[in-house]
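Wed. Picked up where I left off yesterday with Alcohol dehydrogenase. The coffee machine is broken again, so keeping this brief.
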Amino acid sequence: MSLTNKNVVFVAGLGCIGLDTSKELVKRDLKNLVILDRIDNPDAIAELKAINPKVTVTFFPYDVTAPLAETAKLLKCIFSQFKTVDILINGAGILDDHQIERTIAVNYTGLVNTTTAILDFWDKRKCGPGGIICNIGSVTGFNAIYQVPVYSGSKAAVVNFTSSLAKLAPITGVTAYTVNPGITKTTLVQKFNSWLDVEPKVAEKLLEHPTQTTQQCAKNFVKAIELNKNGALWKLDLGTLEP
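Structure written out below (tokens, as returned):
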């Protein structure tokens, strides 16, 4: 699928993997890249605009833990401004098993809420045009890091939720797939806490394994979007893309 002239909404598009993926996306001559993120970063937005001035980059402040009603209100504003959205990327994530409720809220509940809210505009049962959802999971969604069971469980939930969305495509007209990064050099994995401190040095031990850069991950992330395979579970690990 060509991304030329597409309108893309990217939740957490200024994060570590998110920002490098946004840079790859604007190179594809999108029409609009709409970034929803908790913290504004004018320098990053300016950098994205400079990479490809033909792409309109717009920022909206958004905390993915917001209630469904607030998310729906924001999406209504976005659709009124841009008329159509072709792709929604749910990219928010945290890794800290001390923060149990927030981990579930950011990694899973927020993703469900943005998906639920956009279905109001996309669902073909409401005469919507359909759409594409790309959810960021993790290889822990199908191969848990047992020292962080809350994080791993939240990502397994993303994988299963997205698989269900893909099977519902004949009803809703909305297709979905996950991109699942392996260990990537981000601030997420520099220092984090294990559940009940079962492994005090979990971050150090994880980083003993081979890792990939955010740039490597981002390039394959966008390749997966271009492949646009409903129901796919893409593994993005060590600079490779494989089902």
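Quick read: Strands lie at 7-11, 32-37, 56-61, 87-90, 131-136, 174-181, 233-237, 240-242.
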